[in-house]
Amino acid sequence: ALQRSIGDAQTELNRAAGNRIGVARAYGNLGMLAADESDYVAAREMYEKAIPILREERDESSLAATLVNLGSIFLLTHDYASARGLYEEALVKQRELGDQQRIATSLNNLGSLARLEGNRQVSEALFRESLQLSRLIGDRRLTVSAIQGLAKMALDRGDPLHAALLGPFAYVLAHQVAG
Prior knowledge:
By secondary structure, this protein is mainly α. It has helices at residues 2-16, 20-36, 40-57, 60-76, 80-97, 100-116, 120-137, 140-156, 160-178. The longest helix is centred in the C-terminal third of the chain and has 19 residues, at 160-178. It is elongated.
C-alpha cells in the first residue's frame, strides 16, 4: 500500500511538472507493483495508460519494456493472442534498438508462449535463437532460461534422455549465476 501511494505521488508530481515520460514510467512502476501482488487487472490498467504516452513521446526503450510487461500479464491470464502481439511488437523495437539482452529475453518469452500454444517447432527455434544470442553476449541467466526451455521441449516431444542431458547443464549454470 505504501509503495502504491508513493507511485501515485510520483505520477502526480510528474504530471504537475509536465513530465509525460515520468508519468508513463510511474504508471509502469505501479503496473509492476500490481503484478507483484497478482492484481492483474490493475497491472493491465497501468501498463495500458503508459503505452500511449510512451508512443507519443517516442521513448522506444521504455515502450518495449512496457509492452513486454503487459504481454506477461496477458500470458498469465491466458490471453495468448494478445501476449503474442505485444511480445512481437516489443521484439521488433528491441531489434531496432540493438538491445541484445532484451532480444534474448523476448525470444524466451515467445518460445514459452509457443510451447503453451502447442507449437513445438516454433518454440524450439525461438529457444535455440535465444540460447545462441545469450551465449554470444555472455548472459548466463538467459542461457539457463533458454536451456530450460529446450529441456521442457525435449520432454514434450517424448525425449527424456535429451532433457536429462540438458537439465544438469542448466543446473550448473544457474548455480554459477547465483554464486
